[in-house]
């Protein structure tokens, strides 16, 4: 067991005073980690006012100086990486090893460096020798960043890095499930940044709703459920805040006839089960041609035992618990419903109570069809329904039939896969992989999975306002 004392320094800086705040449990052991501050609407209003007052001077620094400070902030993350990873592992549940806590903290540094150094030059959109029109991008003002509990640190950086780079100040409202690790990250960044450029407010849904509707917020960045995203859209009617919404996904994958099941099995596994399936752009329903169906099931089942699940601070584990009881209950309900309808449980299928209260094993479910809740609802956990198809047209229709459209994937011959990919209704379609993101490749959803782009040049533009200088 790793030493939990590694977390003490940052945790003591951000948690509430003794006897105050709200208890935050360890996702794996359910022991109390610490107490999160509980901020109210008055605290939020004060934070927005401070951020608004700090914004003009921050913008006036210019891109070069802001970029230098953000690079120094990325260095500060790296210097505190192990402590951040330990706190994240306990609060969120993801293990230190594998594509999990240490990976997430490392991604924070990488994404912040990319936001700091990606050029965004003025674009000449018209020049006839008499009139020259240039498109520039200016700061919006104050950005409200509302984050999720599944990748709390990395997604916070996705939201705040580009905004800070473009001259915006940011007020961050972390998830009620994972506030301590996010507040610790902000504390590290604020060792470098000027006062009030970046402020965290740890509150409930009422605080989040007020942040979205606040008259001094010019942009809202939100990652979370589609239902909450719709409420945020409604809340911005009064302030007309710009929006980037990364909402729920129920990503489909299609395995083409003749695909090498053994060769793709490990990538299929991680596409579905990264972060124990608690990822918006995870593979959540897999369509496999009848000729390869049993072979793909067997190949996936062979991968699962080699992926240890357990307490995140125990070295070697790569899968952890569900983060909270609500999500655990959703996963359990969907599996039991599928079982009652005659589904075949290939692996898993029952809570792993020997590991802890919220552990659910890797579960692969066969012989299900469209219309079953496990297929149609986003399970957001370590369960993958595998659906049989006989005609590629049917598979494409099935992949497109739901309102979700964050990601999708096609597996098999690359040229055939690209033709199928072009017909899928998703913001990103991966070929022979699923869910990988890159700080320079735009990412965003369609349909009920939201709108707006993040990452790279498009991500910088999204947290700025366009201005045409014409003359």
UniProtKB/TrEMBL annotation:
A Gene Ontology molecular function term of the record? oxidoreductase activity, acting on the aldehyde or oxo group of donors, NAD or NADP as acceptor
What does UniProt list as catalytic?
246
Which is one Pfam family of this protein?
Aldedh
Keyword annotations for this protein?
Answer: Oxidoreductase
Q: Which PROSITE patterns match?
A: ALDEHYDE_DEHYDR_CYS, ALDEHYDE_DEHYDR_GLU
Record flagged with keyword Oxidoreductase:
yes
Q: Does the keyword Transcription regulation apply?
A: no
In this protein, which residues make up the domain named Aldehyde dehydrogenase?
24-464
Q: Which InterPro entries match?
A: Ald_DH/histidinol_DH (IPR016161), Ald_DH_C (IPR016163), Ald_DH_CS_CYS (IPR016160), Ald_DH_CS_GLU (IPR029510), Ald_DH_N (IPR016162), Aldehyde_DH_dom (IPR015590), LUC3-like (IPR044086)
Q: Identify the domain of life.
A: Bacteria
- Family assignment? Belongs to the aldehyde dehydrogenase family.
> What protein name does the entry list?
Acyl-CoA reductase-like NAD-dependent aldehyde dehydrogenase
């Amino acid at each position: 067991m790793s030493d939990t004392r590694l977390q003490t320094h940052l945790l003591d800086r951000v948690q509430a005073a003794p006897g105050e705040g709200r208890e935050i449990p360890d996702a794996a052991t359910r022991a109390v980690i610490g107490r999160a501050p509980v901020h109210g609407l008055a605290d939020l209003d004060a934070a927005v006012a401070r951020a608004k007052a700090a914004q003009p001077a921050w913008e006036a620094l210019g891109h070069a100086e802001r970029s230098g400070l953000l690079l120094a902030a990325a260095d500060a993350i790296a210097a505190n990486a192990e402590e951040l990873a330990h706190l994240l592992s306990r609060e969120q549940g993801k293990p230190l090893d594998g594509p999990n806590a240490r990976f997430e903290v490392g991604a924070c540094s990488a994404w912040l460096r990319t936001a700091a150094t990606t050029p965004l030059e003025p674009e000449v959109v018209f020049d006839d020798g008499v009139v020259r029109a240039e498109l520039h991008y200016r700061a919006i003002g104050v950005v409200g960043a509302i984050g999720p509990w599944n990748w709390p640190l990395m997604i916070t950086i996705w939201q705040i890095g580009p905004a800070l780079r473009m001259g915006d100040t940011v007020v961050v409202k972390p998830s009620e499930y994972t506030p301590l690790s996010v507040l610790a990250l902000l504390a590290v960044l604020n060792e470098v940044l000027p006062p009030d450029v970046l402020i965290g407010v740890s509150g409930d849904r009422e605080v989040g709703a007020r942040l979205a509707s606040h008259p001094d917020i010019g942009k809202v960045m939100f990652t979370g459920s589609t239902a909450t995203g719709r409420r945020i859209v409604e809340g911005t009617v009064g302030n007309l805040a710009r929006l980037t919404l990364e909402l729920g996904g129920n990503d489909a994958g299609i395995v083409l006839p003749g695909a090498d099941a053994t060769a793709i099995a490990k990538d299929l596994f991680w596409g579905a089960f990264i972060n124990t399936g608690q990822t918006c752009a995870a593979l959540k329903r897999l369509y496999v041609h009848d000729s390869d169906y049993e072979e793909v099931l067997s190949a996936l089942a062979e991968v699962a035992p080699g992926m240890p699940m357990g307490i995140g601070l125990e070295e070697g584990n790569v899968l952890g618990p569900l983060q909270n009881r609500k999500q655990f209950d959703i996963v359990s309900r969907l599996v039991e419903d599928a079982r009652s309808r005659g589904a075949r449980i290939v692996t898993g299928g029952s809570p792993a109570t020997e590991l802890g209260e919220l552990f659910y094993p890797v579960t692969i479910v066969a012989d299900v069809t469209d219309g079953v809740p496990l297929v149609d609802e986003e399970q957001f956990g370590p369960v993958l329904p595998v659906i049989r198809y006989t005609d590629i047209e049917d598979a494409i229709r099935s992949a497109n039939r739901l309102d979700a459209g964050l990601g999708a994937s096609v597996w098999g011959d690359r040229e055939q896969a690209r033709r199928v990919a072009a017909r899928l209704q998703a913001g990103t379609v991966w070929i022979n992989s699923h869910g990988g993101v890159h700080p320079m490749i735009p990412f965003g959803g369609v349909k009920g999975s939201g709108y707006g782009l993040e990452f790279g040049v498009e991500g910088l533009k999204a947290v700025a306002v366009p201005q045409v200088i014409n003359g």
